[in-house]
Amino acid sequence: MKRVVVIGSGFAGLWAALGAARRVDELAVAAEVEITVLSPKPFHDIRVRNYEADLSECRIPLADVLDPVGVRHVSADVVDIDVEARTLTTSTGQSFGYDRLVLAAGSSVCKPDLPGLREFGFDVDTYDGAMRLQQHLRRLAEGPPSGAAATVVVVGAGLTGIEAASELPTRLRELGLAPRVVLVDHNRLVGSDMGASARPVIEKALADNGIEVRTGVSVTAVSHEWVSLSSGEQLGAATLVWCAGMRANVLTEQLPVARDRWGRVAVDDYLRVIGVPLVFAAGDVAAARMDDEHVSVMSCQHGRPMGRYAGYNVISELFSEPLLALRIPWYVTVLDLGPAGAVYTEGWDRVVVTQGAQAKATKQTINTRRIYPPFSGSREDLLAAAAPELQARP
């Protein structure tokens, strides 16, 4: 029995497992291959929606999508990869051998060692983190009214920070609080990666949503009732949401290769880790060429196709079949701006194509349908969805 192990069950990990199951089915080698997914929890989380208020549709039981295609899931936190022995070790001491490995363990938000941040800070990086924030805001709404209770500081004016900040005024009002939301970033401009075309749209949306912006400053300390900034300003705030910076899962450090500044390992066009035999990588842990000039970004837009192709290729390599090269000739960004709608851009220079209600409709289609696996429980539907093909632009 040949053993294929996928570490991670996010956008890349889930689709790598489904892609591998599809290729096994195509080659009619089910009796010869065991596919196992290792991830800490038995869920596929729709992580990109964690900034929203309603997370009821954001956690999918892995059994619903893996069992029908014959993929095993083990709830385990992998802590060690031995590429020489081809074994994995979990935090509980379990050991798993592999003939081929797909590392798709994702990324996490970077929290610096600031006074009070770990004790009093929140994030929307994970489903559990987003739920903690939700419960915290409800407790504040039930407590004595104060300016600090109704004030939220969001740190990081990148995509996640802008989406979280844009959603919060409505969330606070619905809880009966008079909202004050302050968006803080050490960069001089909000949405610094969004380019000159989209930035005016973002700035106007933030203003229309009543969000205060502090740029060119950093957070220096946090407590349960205030946030201190490098400018010397102290904001009375009972809530800080950290959305600044991402880093690949630390398991990439187990591989004997160089990593980029986000901790990602380089992969070839077939998603094989360059310099490590028998190991593939997909999603936020991998830096893959999307074209001759650009590498992948940490997003489900790239993570999902990377997973599908990695799954196809890991089985193909195992049985000495031809591999498929992944290149994605287009790039889009759809940024939710809360009540102000959204902004949709195309190209790596992020030229605005639509904004407002029209872009919002596209964002909702993506968030509620496009990035989900089939819910039918049908083996045929799941394998069909795992085809190594590129979706059209949304």
UniProtKB/TrEMBL annotation:
<dbReference type="GO" id="GO:0019646">
    <property type="term" value="P:aerobic electron transport chain"/>
</dbReference>
<feature type="domain" description="FAD/NAD(P)-binding">
    <location>
        <begin position="3"/>
        <end position="301"/>
    </location>
</feature>
<protein>
    <submittedName>
        <fullName>NADH dehydrogenase</fullName>
    </submittedName>
</protein>
<dbReference type="InterPro" id="IPR036188">
    <property type="entry name" value="FAD/NAD-bd_sf"/>
</dbReference>
<keyword id="KW-0274">FAD</keyword>
<dbReference type="InterPro" id="IPR023753">
    <property type="entry name" value="FAD/NAD-binding_dom"/>
</dbReference>
<comment type="similarity">
    <text>Belongs to the NADH dehydrogenase family.</text>
</comment>
<dbReference type="Pfam" id="PF07992">
    <property type="entry name" value="Pyr_redox_2"/>
</dbReference>
<keyword id="KW-0285">Flavoprotein</keyword>
<dbReference type="GO" id="GO:0003955">
    <property type="term" value="F:NAD(P)H dehydrogenase (quinone) activity"/>
</dbReference>
<dbReference type="InterPro" id="IPR051169">
    <property type="entry name" value="NADH-Q_oxidoreductase"/>
</dbReference>
<keyword id="KW-0560">Oxidoreductase</keyword>
